[in-house]
Amino acid sequence: MASTKSTSPAQSRLWDLAPYPVILADEAGTVAELNDAAGHLLKGAAPGANLLDVAPAWLAQAHQEAILRTRLAAQGTRKPPVLASVSGRIAAYSFEAHPTVTQDGSVVWWLIDDTDRRLAEEALATERERTTFLAEASNVLLASLNTDRCMATTAQLAAEYLADVAIVITPVSNGKLPVARAVAGQEADRALVVADPSDLPGLGEALQGFPPVPSRWIDPAALPAWVIPQGFGSTIGSVVVTPLPGHGVPAGALILLRGTERAQFNENEEVFARLFAARAGAALSAARLYSEQSAITQTLMRDLLPPSLQRVEGVEIAGGYRPAGEAERVGGDFYDVHPGSSGQDPSLVILGDVCGKGLEAAVLTGKIRNTLQALLPMADDHQRMLRLLNGALLTSHHTRFATLVLASVRRSENEVRLRLTSAGHPYPLVVRRDGSVEEVHTHGSLIGVLPAIEAHSAETVLRPGDTCLLYTDGFTEARGGPLGDELFGEERLRQALSGCADMPAGAVVDRIQMLASQWLRDGPHDDMALLAISAPHTNHLSAVDGTTRGRYTA
Amino acid sequence: MTPPPSSFTFTVEVSRSTAHLHLAGDLDYDTGDTLVQEADRCLTDHPHLRELRLDCAHLCFCDSVGISSLLTIHRRTTARTVRLRLENSPPFLQRLLDVTGIQQLFAQPQTSQQAE
């Protein structure tokens, strides 16, 4: 059989039985033989026709290459080459073509239909891509708790992967629709639109959380103008409107648009858009809950946050506050500075600590600060102030108490005179200019629990370079250090303060806070507040008497 | 008995008219309520109780919430005319009671003064 130039009838009948299309073509590309299957597949293919005319280009070209390689191998008297198979499309199907060279130099092409395998592979790849996309989308969306950023990210992701244009709409607020619009590959823009959601079929329903309307029901021509972002030039061919489900209440709606040049959304894609919308809705809902809570906290905080301080009546006062949790910016520690009503009157400085932390403590803190402010007319009489405050806070409901220090601060010449009264609070510390640290022994009972309290004041004088430090137990009870479980303690605080001799009040606060932060590293801690009062260096007297210059600066 | 460094445990002994609570560990924000509940249970389960003693020998730490829970227990015991005593207070607790001016509420019995 190998010697015959043409194939025998027996052979050709065998080919007819083959389940695959088979074509034999000679060196010139002329079809010599083909079986029925090949005849059905390639229209016009018959012995004598040229492959260039009847076969797809990829097959005709592969044939020419196969002939060429066979010839080159024959000239070099090498073994016939192993020819690589090729693949391509014939009509709606995909085929692999495997070549074999006959002894006379013709090539037989065995065609195998792999359309189904290709489809399965493509479906698998698409599915994998979608899963990756959904996982990534969740990560990106949950990374931000800012509602605006979350809307913009949702629109951008959807425009990039699901459509040409994506619009995120959240429920009406103050009569306006907040929208984020994105064109694929561009930054999203944000706007507040005055529009009726029912202008667009399905949008009103989606914003109320009803299931989406099938894409084919929505006429792209009916789109209101505000939906389409400015950067998008082409005509809209298809529209999907899907709800963004939130926690209990709908978080908004997602509109996807495709230009006329792209295929319309199919059912599969609409389902996928809903999967994405579920994730985006959860993220958006979390962001909104968070921003609502943070708005409440901020409203409360405006009155509860400690004031920013500066020089008061010629005395340097600096304060620092670090609440227990970064999320809770208010807590149980507080300080206030009330300047005297005239230059002669002492200023009243208050630092205190309410037992507990978080919002509950913050509310009691607010109450104490307000009460003390109302009692300012009697600021000279610390005992009376504390008794009245104690009476105002007594309740049978709980034993939540406060400890605090009152300090009447008066500038006298270049010195600062302090009268301090502690109500159950850690002793104030004074660092002298030479680095020695003293406790100020004022003593009293805590406030808010006992029916009767007592309090004893103490006085001290600060000269230039001296600083008095009021602090809360958040510092001494800060757990950290090399092993992470040791208390910062009073002794370490005294040492730290000793290193702050002759520093301005602001620098003392910064340094103590820094040392405490180093001690804590990232560990949890209670509220920490501190306040430094210093007698500033001054050449006030030198202006009066030129000969004494240098007396305070040496 | 060595208490674990950062937890709170206690054991209860009740004999006739006196209840002993042996505290160990950290009395703080997270554990204050537990102690108050336990003291409450002692008071309700033993109506004839005349004295409640808190043995603080193994207490490692006490913060303001810890102090608050001691004050709560003091209120409850006072309401039932039960005497509340802190025994074997470690130096840190003594200092804390001193600074907050509430030492007189928890009269120290003879034993702890001898121990000093």
TrEMBL record, chain A:
Domain PPM-type phosphatase per the UniProt entry, residue ranges: 312-535
SUPFAM superfamilies the record matches: GAF domain-like, PP2C-like, PYP-like sensor domain (PAS domain)
InterPro entries (UniProt xref): Bact_Sigma-Reg, GAF, GAF-like_dom_sf, PAS-like_dom_sf, PPM-type-like_dom_sf, PPM-type_phosphatase-like_dom
Keyword Cell cycle: no
GO MF: phosphatase activity
Keywords tagged on the record: Hydrolase
Domain of life: Bacteria
Record bears the keyword Hydrolase: yes
Domain GAF residue range list: 129-294
Name of the protein this chain belongs to: Serine phosphatase RsbU (Regulator of sigma subunit)
Lineage: Bacteria, Bacillati, Actinomycetota, Actinomycetes, Kitasatosporales
From TrEMBL, chain B:
STAS domain: residues covered: 8-116
Top-rank taxon, per record: Bacteria
CDD domains (alphabetical): STAS_anti-anti-sigma_factors (cd07043)
Gene3D superfamilies per the UniProt record, alphabetical: STAS domain
Coiled-coil regions, chain positions: none
PROSITE patterns, alphabetized: STAS (PS50801)
GO molecular function: anti-sigma factor antagonist activity
Similarity remark: Belongs to the anti-sigma-factor antagonist family.
UniProt name for this protein: Anti-sigma factor antagonist
Species this protein is from: Streptomyces fulvorobeus
